[in-house]
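Hello,

Our lab assistant flagged a job as stuck in the queue for most of the afternoon. It eventually completed. Since we weren't sure the result was trustworthy after the delay, we are filing this so someone can double-check. Below is the sequence as submitted and the structure that was eventually returned. Let us know if re-running is recommended.
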Amino acid sequence: MELDAIDKKLVNLLQEDFPLTGEPFADLASSLCLSETEVIERVLRLRNGRIIRIIGPVFNSRTIGYQSTLVAMRVSQERIEQAARIINRHPGVGHNYQRDHYYNLWFTLAIRGDMDLAKSLQGFKEQIHPEAIIELPAVRLFKIKLFFDVEGNGNHDEPDDPRGMERAHHVVPLKPLERAVINEAQQQLPIVPRPFDPMAKNAGMDTDEFLSNCRSLMDRGIMRRFGASIEHQNAGFVSNAMVCWAVPQPSVEAAGRKMASFKEVTHCYERKTSEAWPRYNIFTMIHGKKTSENADTVARMSRETGIDEYELLTTVREFKKERVKYLV
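-- returned structure --
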């Protein structure tokens, strides 16, 4: 769908500066010099036009007791759709992609407890019988910021501060009210003047207390952010790829920080290697409006880090992309 200048400004605000207030759309309207009614109409149109996928929280899964990992499989081409359907049925699978590589199915899995994670992986093996499978859990997170600048006016060209990198978190003790807030906040946000009122009521508190708990969860790093996730292909970012880098261990921290500073990079992790995947230990996701942009980004990343051993895995097909719902 065609976006005018106000739509583009609104999409950016919904992604990175959504107000955690009783009347968030009125607050957005004030910053855009519009009426609340017009903002709500535009948000509904953006959602119906599949620009906005969901408005809600993104949680740090480790802090609330979940284990997560990246899994790669080798499945024969004639069985890949069947395998994808089996994988997609698991509620802990958030993303599942076919990639142009020997390992052609890549998916993320989040689940409570180490034993349950191992059990789920064993279940996939028994149902799918992949030719090969590797598990690549995260060791360190350098960046996760899924923001797509649809304005493209240069106001968002400054890269993130790589000093904000995050190491693995331990589980954080949660109060019963905080658990209620986490469980309820993950619903699709209603596009109405006071969207948090029904969530707060269901959680057994008033709206101010509900939002205060949300802000506290964010301040403590349990909630990474609250905002919109967009369908980046529909917003013009049609090319994306995962780049796996072989970084000597003494250079991991410096290279991870540098890679995370690129605005084209939305995710940057150090991951545990495996016998079947022994060299590549830093994984980045990059997005661009065309394939040539991604190639240029990878070339600049290689040049500025001095890391020239990497594999670029282009996305062939998206089988699943949604936020995992965590129950605490």
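-- support follow-up --
The delay was a queue issue, not a problem with the job. The result is valid. The radius of gyration is 20 Å. The chain is about 35% helix and 25% strand.
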